[in-house]
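User: Teach me something about this protein's shape.
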Amino acid sequence: MKGLKIGHYTDLSVYTGSTVFLFERKNRAIASVRGGAPGSRELNALSPGQLVENIDALVFSGGSSFGIDSMSGAVEYLRQKGVGYKTKAANIPIVAGAVIYDLEVGKNAAPHSEWVYTACENATEKPKEGTVGAGTGASVGKSSGIRFAMKSGFGWGKSPQHRDGIHTFIVTNALGDIYDPRNGQLLAGRRNKSGEIEGFLKNIQNDTGFTSYYNTTLTLVVLDYFFSREDLLMLSHVVHSALSTCIRPYATLFDGDTIFMVSMGDRRPNYLSILQGLYESVAEAVIHSILFAEGLPMLPSRSDIIK
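Assistant: First, the predicted structure itself:
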């Protein structure tokens, strides 16, 4: 999409990373949180009614709350470029972000500011998908703990009827399982002791292995249409609904699911077609985050299990 660049930094030695989104056009942005375990930066600034509507960068990071400090790398990158909200003293970059919990996947490591700065330098209009960036340590199906989980990652989805108008980017890191909403197929989720994909809903009454393993699915929806921040906040409810058709269960006490919505365009769209486009792009992004993920030691991907 014109005016949006995405950069990743991936460290496969510690199984974590960062993803940055750089917005080069004027926009309006909001954030919406569901679930009980979020970790974030500057979310209050993205509420309707606040002074600044525009966002200059958004960062998704691994490392749980330890990864929040890494987002200063985007602030420094934009400061050097002179990008930000204009004041008499300086242009102040508006950078928001959110983190996923992936500390039990690798070596309890967290991204730092140099990673995010490098991701900004390498940002492109066509980012890689799968086990990259903030999706490096992502996993799903953790109702019995990380030992029975599966690998997920970073996904990018578009709507067939809005190819250049609606883009969804996601890091799927869920307690629940992942389904294809088009046919109901279980794509990834909790594995049984034989290593087969069994899912959360099967024999859950007999499952005594549950741990409060923290999770967060991070989603960014970018619209090349005009919507006010109030409009975007209402549309975020639709995105949560779309995610719940793919992730089951969704937005639990142990998830910190956070959605960012950004409107960068001037066109006034057909509202009902936008609703359809949101469901389409969200589903594709979630599915890509599973199908393109590459497994890690002790954390297999779908392609490792189903050849």
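Now, about its shape. Helices lie at 72-81, 113-121, 229-246, 271-291, 302-305. The two ends are 34 Å apart (CA to CA). If you'd like, I can walk through any region in more detail.
User: That's plenty for now, thanks!
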